[in-house]
Amino acid sequence: MRKCNADRPFFVDHPILAEQSAPTIWTYRDLLSDLAALSRGETSVLGGVDGPVEGRSGNGESKDHRSENGYYLLLGVIARILRDRDCDLSTSAGVELLSNPPSWSGLTQSSDADRSDMAFLLPDGTFDGEALSSRVLASKSHIVLSTSGTTGDPKPIRQSIGNLARAVQISPKHGNDVWGLAYQPTKIAGIQVLLQALCNGNTLVNLFGLPVPTAREWIRRFQVSHLSATPTYFRLLAADTEAYPLVQAVTVGGEVADASIRARLGQLFPNARFRNVYASSELGTLFHSHGDSFLVPDSVRNSIRIQEQRLWVHQDLVAENLRSQCVDGFWDTGDSVEVLGDEPLQIRITGRRSDWINVGGMKVNPHEVETALCSLPGVLDARVFGVPNSVTGSLVAAELSIEPSSSLRVADVRQLLQGILPTHAIPRVISFREGLVISPTGKKERRS
User: Fold this and answer.
1) Is residue 217 part of a domain?
2) What is the CA radius of gyration of the chain?
3) I need a surface site. Which of 82, 128, 345, 405 has the fewest CB within 10 A?
4) How many whole angstroms separate alpha carbon 200 and alpha carbon 172?
5) pLDDT 10s digits, 266-283
6) How many domains does the chain have?
7) What's the pLDDT score for residue 134?
8) What is the pTM of this model?
């Protein structure tokens, strides 16, 4: 038995009501007591609150705010995982259902034996972390998620808990981790962070949706030790000049992580291990590295194909509802790769093929243009995308976020790029923005 402190915070969330300023904190005792209450059919007394969480909406009317709070969403997801029930997080209606305790009557149990399955709390003020993690990892439930939709309409993906938990690491050395949740909890990366934290009895600090200055303050205040986010999110944090020495591990995923962001992360998190993961809604986490290239492990080597510089993955590793779309048993990930070595197979992800911009028949990789732009003095981040043009089909456009003290001008940008990029890849449309357009998954939007 692995005993864990039941009074340790499980979830540090945004203020539950608009008129509040302090974060709302739920402990593992709150979580496990609520799971037990659900098994008894007590759906109104949850989160230490008797009845709906009443407050005032924007028009002054009384409103139950439980369905808008992250804790109740996670509680609904966890309860369904433990009860082998499927969760639909791909639509707003599904999320609202999972966040709304009055709709959870189907999770109640009919017998004392069934109810005892939710009894993780122990008399000595601890809880059985081993039993909880074993139940989570053995779950037969599936979660329906939506893809990021950065280049097109999001599509639903049905993933098993087993596939989502493929990268979960359970160890005593992870017992005191504090995770910053920088992803939307309804997306695959958010669920993966939840599973990692839950299976180790860790604290989750909800950074998603917070203003960047508040997120920085919470990372320090709650002593976050592990952060997983996109390069775009980390660049927002990187505008801070003060380092975060308590962060022990930084995981980057969802976008190409170039040398510039890795160097900046080294300055921002001087005591942290760096890990770059290759993961997607369709696949879960496939492999990881400590740099910008990936050594494909032997365990999945036979499940990987490189065809015409694109990455294909065997259907056994793909979400169940997409396997019928595989060609000869393999799924086209849509990611462009550069092969660096064959034995063992070493690859570098160069970007998504659908992101590329066609300029008069010449293909431009927006990630390469962004890397060049971010190397310029005074540039904090860049978003590159295509805009329609009647002559060339598309033009390269760029939005830049620059340092407040920078005097960089559009003409300067074009001149500095002359020796870095080919002429057709230099942005014809350049603008400066205080904040770049970011999707709910923390990625840059590629649509104009």
Assistant:
1) yes
2) 23
3) 405
4) 8
5) 999 999 999 999 888 888
6) 2
7) 93
8) 0.83
